[in-house]
Design a protein that fits this description.
It catalyses: 2-deoxy-D-ribose 5-phosphate = D-glyceraldehyde 3-phosphate + acetaldehyde. Belongs to the DeoC/FbaB aldolase family. DeoC type 2 subfamily. Pfam families: DeoC (PF01791). InterPro entries: Aldolase_TIM, DeoC, DeoC/FbaB/LacD_aldolase. Strand 5, helix 11 and strand 6 form a beta-alpha-beta unit. This protein has an eight-stranded parallel sheet with strand order 7-6-5-4-3-2-1-8. It has one domain: Alpha-Beta Barrel (TIM Barrel). The protein is built from 14 helices and eight strands. The chain is of the alpha/beta class. 49% of the residues are buried.
C-alpha cells in the first residue's frame, strides 16, 4: 500500500462523511449467531501477532497517523463539561495538527479534521455552533449513558432531544442484562426502537464489552445490534473496568464481516476507551487493514473514540518533521 492510498481525502461535507448506504438491518435471525463458538486462546494469539506482522515506519507511519486523526471521534464526556470546554475541543477538531507541521508534511491545504466530536446531549448545541461550516458531525451519547438503565421511554426521548439539537450521530448503550440472560428478542427490539428514534442520525451501538463476560457474548451482541439496524458497533463507553482491547475488537470485526456476507450490508466499527497513544491508533488501523481492508480505514466505516490520543499523534508527527520529541504539554487538549 502506498502513502497516497492512506491519505485518501476525507472531504468536509457531511454528505461525504455519510455517503455509504445505511445498514437497513434484518429480521432477528438467531441461526446467524446462536451456536457460534469462540476460541479465546486462538483469538488472543491472532490479536497479539497482528501488530507485529506489519511494520509501518517513517513517511508511511506519518501518513497512517494522519489517517487516524481523520477517524477520531474527539470526545469529552466528563461530569464537569462546560460550553467553554466543548468550544475548545471543537477548535481542536477543526485544526487537530499545528499548521507548521502540516506544511512540513505537504498537507497545508488538505483540510485535515477529526472524524467527529462526541459530547453529552446537553452539550450538543454548543458543539453544533462551534463546528458550523466545518462539515464535522456532532455525535452525542444517549440512552442513559453509560449504564443504560433508565426506562426505555426516557432513553428514546434522550435520542429525540439530541437529534433535535443537531446531533448527526447517536452513540447508544445497550441493556447488558439482555445479553447476559440471552434475551435476544428484547435486545433486538430495544435497538430497533433506538434506530427509529434516531431517524437520519447514524446509530452507533455501544456493547460495553467489558461487562459481557465472554467473547461469545460479544459476537452475539454484535450480530443482534447489526440485525436491529446499528450503523456502527462500538466496544465500550470508556467507563467500564475493561474497555477496548484487540481480542474483543477482533471478534467484533469477525461478526461484522459475517454480517456483511449474510446480509449484503455494510456496518462500521468504533473502538473506544483506554486508547491514549499514537501506537494504539496504529494498532487498531493495522487490525482494520488486516481483517477488513482499506475501505474500513476510512471515517465512514471506522472511528476511534479518544481525546488524549490526538495529542500524542501530533507529538509523533512533530518528531517525524523535526527529529525531536516535544514535551506532551505542547500538544495539550481542551
Amino acid at each position: 500500500m502506498n502513502r497516497q492510498d492512506i491519505l485518501v481525502s476525507k472531504g468536509t461535507d457531511l454528505a461525504v462523511q455519510h455517503s455509504l448506504a445505511r445498514n437497513a438491518g434484518t429480521k432477528l435471525a438467531l441461526d446467524w449467531f446462536d451456536d457460534i463458538a469462540v476460541n479465546r486462546s486462538a483469538t488472543e494469539r491472532r490479536a497479539a501477532t497482528l501488530t507485529t506482522r506489519r511494520t509501518v515506519k517513517k513517511e508511511y507511519q506519518a501518513a497512517w497517523l494522519i489517517k487516524a486523526i481523520t477517524c477520531i471521534d474527539l470526545t469529552t464526556l466528563a461530569g464537569d463539561d462546560t460550553a467553554g470546554r466543548v468550544h475548545r475541543l471543537c477548535a481542536k477538531a477543526r485544526r487537530p495538527v499545528r499548521e507548521d507541521i502540516l506544511e512540513a508534511l505537504g498537507l497545508a491545504d488538505a483540510n485535515i479534521t477529526t472524524g467527529a466530536v462526541c459530547v453529552y446531549p446537553t452539550m450538543v448545541p454548543h458543539a453544533v455552533k462551534a463546528l458550523q461550516g466545518s462539515g464535522i458531525p456532532v455525535a452525542s451519547v444517549a440512552t442513559g449513558f453509560p449504564a443504560g438503565l433508565t426506562p426505555l421511554p426516557q432513553r428514546l426521548a434522550e435520542i429525540h432531544y439530541a437529534v433535535g439539537e443537531g446531533a448527526a450521530e447517536i452513540d447508544i448503550v445497550i441493556t447488558r442484562e439482555h445479553v447476559l440472560t440471552q434475551n435476544w428478542s428484547a435486545l433486538y427490539d430495544e435497538i430497533a426502537q433506538m434506530r427509529e428514534a434516531a431517524g437520519d442520525a447514524h446509530l452507533k451501538a455501544i456493547l460495553a464489552t467489558g461487562d459481557l463476560n465472554t467473547l461469545r457474548n460479544v459476537y452475539r451482541a454484535s450480530m443482534v445490534a447489526m440485525q436491529a439496524g446499528a450503523d456502527f458497533i462500538k466496544t465500550s463507553t470508556g467507563k467500564e473496568e475493561v474497555n477496548a482491547t484487540l481480542p474483543v475488537s477482533l471478534i467484533m470485526l469477525r461478526a461484522l464481516r459475517d454480517y456483511g456476507e449474510l446480509s449484503g450490508q455494510t456496518v462500521g466499527f468504533k473502538p473506544a476507551g483506554g486508547m491514549k497513544t499514537a501506537k494504539d491508533a496504529m494498532n487498531w488501523l493495522i487490525l482494520m487493514k488486516e481483517e477488513l481492508g482499506l475501505p474500513w480505514m476510512q471515517p465512514e466505516l471506522f472511528r476511534l473514540g479518544a481525546s488524549s490520543m490526538l495529542g500524542d499523534i501530533e507529538r509523533q508527527l512533530e518528531h517525524y518533521v523535526t527529529g525531536r520529541y516535544a514535551a506532551s504539554s505542547r500538544h495539550a487538549l481542551a
